[in-house]
Description:
Number of strands: 26
Bound molecules: adenosine monophosphate
Number of helices: 16
Amino acid sequence: xxxxxxxxxxxxxxxxxxxxxxxxxxxxxxxxxxxxxxxxxxxxxxxxxxxxxxxxxxxxxxxxxxxxxxxxxxxxxxxxxxxxxxxxxxxxxxxxxxxxxxxxxxxxxxxxxxxxxxxxxxxxxxxxxxxxxxxxxxxxxxxxxxxxxxxxxxxxxxxxxxxxxxxxxxxxxxxxxxxxxxxxxxxxxxxxxxxxxxxxxxxxxxxxxxxxxxxxxxxxxxxxxxxxxxxxxxxxxxxxxxxxxxxxxxxxxxxxxxxxxxxxxxxxxxxxxxxxxxxxxxxxxxxxxxxxxxxxxxxxxxxxxxxxxxxxxxxxxxxxxxxxxxxxxxxxxxxxxxxxxxxxxxxxxxxxxxxxxxxxxxxxxxxxxxxxxxxxxxxxxxxxxxxxxxxxxxxxxxxxxxxxxxxxxxxxxxxxxxxxxxxxxxxxxxxxxxxxxxxxxxxxxxxxxxxxxxxxxxxxxxxxxxxxxxxxxxxxxxxxxxxxxxxxxxxxxxxxxxxxxxxxxxxxxxxxxxxxxxxxxxxxxxxxxxxxxxxxxxxxxxxxxxx
Length: 547
Ligand code: AMP
């Protein structure tokens, strides 16, 4: 017997319709590429998205066509989120930090039909326009006054002219909730990038889960500033969650330095932000150097790579900003876990509570997790045993776009597919997951794993260290031993022996790094993560002192 409930598809357009109807006057504020601050509301954003949906149709964009963007966080990008997906096309957020050759490869693989881009990316688009095979039109996301007098980009259109020339009457089509809505490629540290193709259903379900109090905790009373780019897993879903709850949105555009962010937090009275640790490091340095405070900001979501306890302590103890440590990945839309504490944790001492907070957190409803050993056997949830982390859920990919990337799923005894995350973690009895390494980066010494993240956290807590990364270096006896690559803070004095001595008593003795090399910079990928494969290449012939 079936239930007797209405069948209503879960559609991305319904989030915008809701925001307009119930939070029409709520503000959307953007620092524009043009340099000024732009103020609008959900009512205006919804009307302009409908105009853009008509403009896309006028450009011949049909159901399922890919609409590409090269854009910062801003209201025009948000309009495209809704205009493209809402009208049945697929929004493809290209990552502008990639090499032009990679942008061309990805745009060709996605078969993008039209490319929207911010003024900052005109040189990039000029470099790739003649090479992308399927793009028929290029749209500069600005007004007539900011259009270039001349450009080598063919069929160059002006965003504001498209909007002005289109009607704001558009009925969002009631499409199948399983239709593709948006496409995001993984950073691809190895091999070609792979596409995660989200659906309307997966996106709306992810939005419900992300907004919950023990997840990202979004409310109509919040002012949310996503620092995480809208070209990196849809800014962790915040442009959708903000519409669902009616929160004020503030977009920083390309201005992501500590001063610009802090100014915007203060002037727009931001309460919640989200981004990767690298960004927060710069912000904390600015705030510390200028003896500033956060007068309204109370929470920040930190993920994408591990947040160190030192950073958490700085935010929480010095600035009264609660850190929500979150973990996920492109293939998971991206949210998997958030580290919010349970009531029992209130009884713990400060150190024990920090130890829980340093974990990546517990699964949000909808995500199933398990850890397995080398033979695929399930490992205990004891907070100590680590193994490869596998996940399942309605917003986790079943396969990559066009099947390129092989069949990623691993079947269990019931024949259900699990997605292997490539992360190595523990799970404790309370369900808290802690990443100890990535399987690609793992350091295996004498057949035993060494968690490079722990070693990096200890180095990062040293006052003379600006950045540290740990890789496995070749060792004749142990196969691999940890090598620490370190960037010192400007003017700081630190020797190899002093840093190695700082590990005493903090970890098992055999985990202590065998050597330290000081460098000027550590290579970072397009999304701000340390490129350990590059480091491994760089130090492939490094002679460890004991070797
Ligand atoms: P991406 O698909 O680029 O978002 O990268 C996902 C990967 O980033 C994950 O598989 C993890 O290896 C890593 N990652 C994401 N969040 C965290 C976190 N909070 N701590 C450690 N690693 C993380």
